[in-house]
Structures are given as structure tokens and as C-alpha cells.
Amino acid sequence: MTQHSQAPLYQQVKRTLVAAISRGEYEPDQPFITQREVCQRYGVSTTTAIRALNELVADGVLIRHRGKGTFVADRTAPPAPDTGGAAVACIIQGLAGPHVSQIVRGVESVCSERGFRMFLSESDGSAERQGRALRQAIDTGAAGVVLYPIEDEANTDLIEELRRRRIPLVLVDRYRTDVATDSVVADDFDLGYEITRQLIDRGHQRIATLWSETRATSVRDRLTGHLHALREHGLPVLPELTTLRTYWPVADAASRSALSRLLGGTQPPTALLCANGYVLARAATDLLHLGDDATEHVELASMDDAGPYDIAPLTVLAAALPSEEIGRRAAELVITRIGDENPYRDVRRVVLGVSVRQRDGVGARLQPAGAR
């Protein structure tokens, strides 16, 4: 392996292993070297070894047999066969905003690297549209499915059909509690906890949460983290501030009335912790309509950057999700499962870390720009 090569390290390991196989150093009926042996032999990390081996499996060079190990594929077959135009279905809800678009970019980039086509469908939060997209993936012979599921536990019958047909499925952004599938998610508990802790460090003791979806596991995990931070700092958990209620999307008058009631109490919140950029945009608009008194004493924070535009200028704190990495890891996982005798055995939940961005200096304050 050439140490000074410009190729990524996992690709260098992969090429070295393919060359060794071509020289006849490994036979199809003998177990291939293990992940640990790859690490020791080539001085690479576990992550690099796993990725190199997984890609060789996806390329058809290696084959895994449950309970037996990894073997060289039949030498009579080409070592790196064409995928034959095999496709991965990527089904997401909503194309707007950086979070979803970066997930799609991650899925597409891995599919392109591995020689798979990706076809994209949008559910727009609808069980019916999600069902049509899943049915299309099944009927058109998709090799695997990456699904950003709607918040309701819908289309269970189609997921079970994927299982029966041995078509691997990986969920992104959230998992489901009713079916066992692979998933790749952000650490939503830590997200809710950390952004709340930093708001408390800024002096906020009454933090109102504003939500969009209320039944997704990602939302519930964030709320759990938020509540944990409040209790850890000795702050009361007040239902009027923490109950899961939909603030967006609802009619403008309804959200404005709800925010007015919230801010008009005897002890109004000093921070609004918004579920995402869409909720944040609505809250900022409502605050401006409510006038100077509302905007003067409230700071805004967001639990992720999903939304119609860059939310950073409006927030004192905003969580940054590993969106593209979620897409990449999901695509890698689904491709690795393709051809598995049982792609739903030993399912995995991959949890990726998040970060919280803080504005320098004093918090942002909303100010009307004036009207003609």
C-alpha cells in the first residue's frame, strides 16, 4: 500500500486487498482476513477497515455468510461486477432547507461512488404519498430503500413487504418503535440537553419550546433531553412551556394568538426554543407583529437548521445536524445489506453527534425594518 497516495486510506486498503486476491493469496472456501487483522496488518483504524471490507462486499469481491464469516466470492465471477443499473430508492419528506438536501446529497454521493443509481421520491409528510413511493420502490425492483419517514407510524404493511422480499431498509433522521429496522439518526437527546444547558448558562430560567411535528421519535428524544437539563439545573418543568403542541404549520392568527398568550403571562419566557427553522421563521414573524415589547425581552434558539433559509442571524444558539453524514452512513449501510440472506437481522441504530453554534457577543434582537 502506497502511503503517500492521494486516494483516501480506505481505498488504498481496498486496492491492496483486491491485488492480494488476484494473486491467489485468498481462496473462496477459506475465511477472509478479519477487520482486526486488516487494522493490524495495514496500521489503519477500525473505521477504515470496516469501510474497505464493506465496499468489497458491495462490489461483489467478498461475500458474507451469517455465522461463518467473510469469504472471497467465486473466482469464476468478475471481481468487481457491474451493478447492472441497480438502484437505491431515497424517499424523503420535503425538499426545502439544508437539512433534507444535505441528507439527499450524502445518499446520492455514496450511490454514485458504489455504482448504484438513486431515484428520489418526496412524501411531503403524507402517509399516502409515502406509501406510493414505497410501492414504487418494490414494484420497480429497488435494491434497497433509504427512508426519511413521516412522523406517524404508517405504511407498516409495506415495510413488512420489504422485509419479506429481503429488500434492505434504512431510516434516516428518526427511527420507528413499531418495526425493527436499521436507522441513522442524530443524537437528539444530547441535542435537546445541550442547547437547553447553554440557554440556562445565558441566564434563561423560563424557556418555552415551540414544535412542529409532535409524534416523531426525534422530537420526543429532544424533549426528553430538554427536560433532563431543566431538572439537572433545578428548574421547574412547566406544562405551558414544555407540552408538545404544534406551533407550525397552523394559521398565522392561531400561532400569533398562542405566542401572545405565552408572552402575556405573569412570568413570560425569556427564550423561545424552536423545533427547526420553519418554526423559528414563524416565531420571528409573530414576534414582529406583536411589537417592540415582545421582541425586546426574548431570545431565539433552534434545535436544528431545517428550514427555508439560513437561520443563524436570528438565533443566539442553533444546533447543527450532521445531515450529509446521516445520508452517507445510511447509503453505506443499505448497500452493505444488499444481497444479505436476512438484511433485517441484527439491526443497527447509528447515532451521530451534533454541535451547537453560538453567536459571538450579545444575543440577536428582532427589529422591524420599517414599511413603506
From TrEMBL:
<protein>
    <recommendedName>
        <fullName>HTH gntR-type domain-containing protein</fullName>
    </recommendedName>
</protein>
<keyword id="KW-0804">Transcription</keyword>
<dbReference type="InterPro" id="IPR036390">
    <property type="entry name" value="WH_DNA-bd_sf"/>
</dbReference>
<feature type="domain" description="HTH gntR-type">
    <location>
        <begin position="7"/>
        <end position="75"/>
    </location>
</feature>
<dbReference type="Pfam" id="PF00392">
    <property type="entry name" value="GntR"/>
</dbReference>
<dbReference type="InterPro" id="IPR028082">
    <property type="entry name" value="Peripla_BP_I"/>
</dbReference>
<dbReference type="InterPro" id="IPR036388">
    <property type="entry name" value="WH-like_DNA-bd_sf"/>
</dbReference>
<dbReference type="Pfam" id="PF00532">
    <property type="entry name" value="Peripla_BP_1"/>
</dbReference>
<keyword id="KW-0238">DNA-binding</keyword>
<dbReference type="InterPro" id="IPR000524">
    <property type="entry name" value="Tscrpt_reg_HTH_GntR"/>
</dbReference>
<dbReference type="InterPro" id="IPR001761">
    <property type="entry name" value="Peripla_BP/Lac1_sug-bd_dom"/>
</dbReference>
<keyword id="KW-0805">Transcription regulation</keyword>
